[in-house]
């Protein structure tokens, strides 16, 4: 597994850094070039607005903290993060 950070390391609740989507894409390309079965997860600023960005960039796993814990309905919020890219 590879874990890519999409915020500056530090405090929780930070906003997703859009330019990190390019980094996620590059990591996915490098993983694919190796031919190895490697999971790519991302952590940082993952929410209903950013989840599709990182999925399209090639991340299979998403780590979410603040988005889930601040949600009115945690189950619905988690289901949104699990949904397939439209």
Structure description:
- The protein has 86 residues and is an alpha/beta fold.
- The protein is 41% helix and 13% strand.
- It has a 3-stranded parallel β-sheet with strand order 1-2-3, covered by helices on one side.
- Number of H/I helices: 4
- Residue runs with pLDDT of under 50 for 5 or more positions: none
Helix content: 40-55%
How far is it from the N-terminal to the C-terminal residue, by CA? 25 Å
| Main sheet characteristics | 3 strands, parallel
Secondary structure layout plus pairing:
Layout: E1 2-5, H1 20-34, E2 40-43, H2 51-57, E3 61-63, H3 66-69, H4 74-82
Task: Give a summary of the structure in a few sentences.
With 86 residues, this protein is an alpha/beta fold.
Features:
86 residues; alpha/beta; 3-stranded parallel sheet; 4 helices; 41% helix
């Amino acid at each position: 597994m590879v874990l890519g950070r999409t915020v500056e390391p530090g405090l929780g609740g930070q906003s997703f850094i859009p330019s990190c989507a390019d980094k996620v894409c590059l990591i996915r390309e490098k993983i694919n070039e190796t031919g190895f079965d490697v999971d790519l997860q991302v952590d940082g600023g993952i929410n209903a607005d950013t989840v599709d960005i990182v999925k399209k960039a090639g991340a299979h796993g998403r780590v979410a903290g603040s988005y889930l814990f601040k949600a009115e309905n945690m189950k619905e919020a988690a289901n949104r993060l699990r949904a397939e890219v439209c």
